Each structure stands twice: as structure tokens, then as C-alpha cells.
Amino acid sequence: MCFRKEIFMNKRSLLIFSLLLLFSSSLFAFFEDNDEETAKTLQVPKQERHAKVSVVFPKNATIPMSQTVTGITEPRQKITINTLSEGILHVKSFNGELVQKGDVVATISNAQQKSTMTILKSNIKLLRQQLLAQKSKLQSAKEMMKLGILSKNQLLDQQNLLEGTRISLNQAKIELNRLELQNSASAVKAPVAGYVDSLLPDGSYVAYGQTLCKIIDAHVQIRLFVSPLFAKELHIGQKVNIKEQGISAQAKIIAILPQSSDNLLDVIALPSQPLPVGLHIEAQIQTAQTKGWIIPKDAIVLVQNRPALFLIKKGKAALHFVTVEKDMIDKVLITDHLKAEDQIALKNAYMLHDGAIVELIQ
Questions:
Q1: How far apart are CA 109 and CA 112, in angstroms?
Q2: Considering only CA atoms, which of 190, 200, 193, 194 is closest in space to residue 96?
Q3: Of the candidates 54, 26, 46, the residue with the CA atom closest to the CA atom of residue 299
Q4: How far is CA 108 from CA 119, 189, 236, in A?
Q5: 284 and 316 fall within a common domain
Q6: Are residues 113 and 202 in the same domain?
Q7: Residue 2 pLDDT > 70, yes or no?
Q8: Residue 15: predicted pLDDT
Q9: Which one, 38, 90, 97, 208, has least CB within 10 Å?
Q10: pTM for the structure as a whole
Q11: 203 lies in the same domain as 129
């Protein structure tokens, strides 16, 4: 029994030893093979190793170039209304009301003025009668002087009296015309359509020439703040694209003001549609059109902090520095000398260096 047990144990040990020997042989063979592959790879010079890249072709394009500026919407004009009369103010509108051109904003009444006008009209009538009578007396005085009844001094007195009456009549007419003009201007009308602002209280006494209110134009304009260096590229009639708070509109430049504030020029533009007053906006002004080549942005690499790309020529990568004129999210516009048939590395471009051997993939 013990002899059989010993034989069984020897067979078991022999089997385990055989398995270990087989596993060790396979393991050594594996490492030996890998060492050979690694050695082969390291034996290839770096400049002869190749990278798998895909290529694209540049597309010729003309892209509009624009400058982004800030601005604010404001009333096209604020008109100050001054009174052409004096008296008690009777308002017919209120602050913030939208009025149309010709609407009566307020009236001015002056009872004393009307009384003065009545008196002047009566005086003018009397002076006219007096003037006619004095003309008749002067004619009689001339005839009496010829007969020697009146002296020359008496005739001069009659002429002076007539001239004084004529002067008084003219002064009365001038004063009556002035009061009638003021009375006709007692109805204050809006010169343009807009919003009433700073209106004096009802019942106020206003003097001639006093500011009664302001009319804020219902139409708006855009005041853009532009760098003087950029302003030389602007001109009257130039279009402006506006995008702000969901609003998309166009405007046209109507004035380039010579004065500046905070080292910026004021440029006035009229929008193509109504906009709220006081809206802060960003606007893009197209200045020129640039011709160049459009390529995918992923084809651009940075070499020595300069943008560049790799041209694939005869299976090798050639480093080519470029000037990026415009970034268009996933594409860029470059203005360097290229050809439509030039192959530009795209996929794995970041792995290349000048002179690297490449393998093209789809």
C-alpha cells in the first residue's frame, strides 16, 4: 500500500515539473521575441520613422474683414421748446407722452396782454384820425404862410406836431403787432413727433423766451465709439451689423464726428428698424475684403510660438509658417502663398516635424 502511494506521488511531482518547464519555455520565448522587435525599431533612425496622416487641400476664398466696436442707442434729437409769449401756462400734455408733429402741448393765456391789445387798437384808431386832421391843418398853414398870415416858425411847429403823431402811430402799430404775434403763439405745438420731457407745471407763469419743455425724438440713432486709427477706414453710408440681446439689425453711418471722448471718435448710424433707447450694443463694421485660403483649424500647429502647417511633398512633411488672418471657430483664413493642389497634413499633424516621413491615410 505504501509502495503504490509513493509511485503515485512521484508521478504527480513529475507532471507538475513538466508543466512548469513548458510554461517557462514559452515565457522566455515571448520576451525574446519582443526584444528582437524593439531592437529592430530602435535600429531605424528617427528621421526615417513615419507617421500616418490624412491630408486636406486649401480652398481659395474672399472673406469680409470687420471691426467690432461698442455703442449705445439714443434719441436722434432733443428739441427744446421756448415760449414766444408770456403769461399763465395751461398744459395739454404730460411728461412721457408720445405726441405727433403739430399736436398742442400747452397754451399760454395773458388777460393783461389782451387788455393792452384792446387799448392799443383804440389808440391807433384815434391817432389815425388825429393824423388826418393834422395833415389838413398843415396844408392850411402852408397857404396862410403864403398870404403872410402865419410865420415860418408856426408852420414848422405844425409840421413837428404832425411828425410826432406819425411816430406815435407807428410805435403803437409795432407794439400791437408784437402782442398779436405773442398771442398767436399762445398755442405751443410739437415741432416733431416724440416724447414730452421736462414740461413745466400747469399754472406756471412763463416769460418770453423761457424753456417750456423738450421733445425727445421718437426715432433713435446709434452712437458708436471708434478708435481714431480705425476711423480712417469709415465713410458715410457704410453698413453696420448689430447684434445684441437677441436683436439683429443693420444700420448705416450718417456722420463721423470730429470731436472725441476718452480717445474715441463718435460715429453716428441710423438703424434699419426701431430700437429701444439706452441699449448698449456691439456692432461689426466691415472694413475690407481679404483674399486667402481656408483650412481646418486642426491643421495649424504651434512651432516656436508661431502658427504653422505641414505640407506633404514626396512622402515627407515640410514645415510652412503661416499668418492667420481670421479665426472662424473650426476653420481659419490664412494669407500665405499656397496652391490649390497643396497637400496639408490634418490628422496627427501635431506628431510631425520638418522632414518627417509620412504615410497617407484616408
A1: 9
A2: 194
A3: 54
A4: 20, 12, 43
A5: no
A6: yes
A7: no
A8: 54
A9: 38
A10: 0.49
A11: yes
Go through the chain and tell me how many residues it has. 362
Q: How far is CA 63 from the centre of its chain?
A: 22
- % of residues, the chain, pLDDT over 70: 85
Last residue of a domain, one of 289, 304, 330: 289
Rounded-to-integer distance, Cα 276 and Cα 279, Å: 6
Q: Are 98 and 123 in contact (CB under 8 A)?
A: no
Amino acid at 128: R
Question: Are 262 and 243 within one domain?
Answer: yes
Q: What stretches of the chain show up as alpha helix (H) in DSSP? A: 2-43, 111-146, 152-184, 228-231
Q: DSSP 3-state assignment of 21?
A: helix
pLDDT band at residue 49 using 50, 70 and 90 as cut-offs: low
**Number of domains within the chain:** 4
Q: Which of residues 215, 235, 265 is at a domain's end?
A: 215
Q: Measuring CA to CA, which residue among 100, 95, 103, 97 is closest to residue 213?
A: 95
* β-bridge pairing 316-321 and 306-313: antiparallel
The CATH number of the domain holding residue 51 is: 2.40.420.20
Is 319:302 a contact under the CB 8 Å cutoff? no
Q: What is the CA radius of gyration of the chain?
A: 50
User: Domain containing 231: what range?
Assistant: 68-76+218-289
Q: SS3 for 263?
A: coil
Q: How far is CA 306 from CA 36, 221, 319, in A?
A: 41, 43, 11
144 and 210 together in one domain = yes
Same domain, 135 and 161: yes
Same domain? 24 vs 146: no
Give the model confidence (pLDDT) of 149-203 as tens digits.
778 888 788 888 889 889 999 998 998 888 777 776 688 899 988 899 999 999 9
Query: How far is residue 325's CA from residue 333's CA, in Å, rounded to a whole number?
Result: 6
137 or 4, greater pLDDT: 137
Which pLDDT score is estimated for 235? 85
Q: Are residues 295 and 352 located together in one domain of the fold?
A: yes
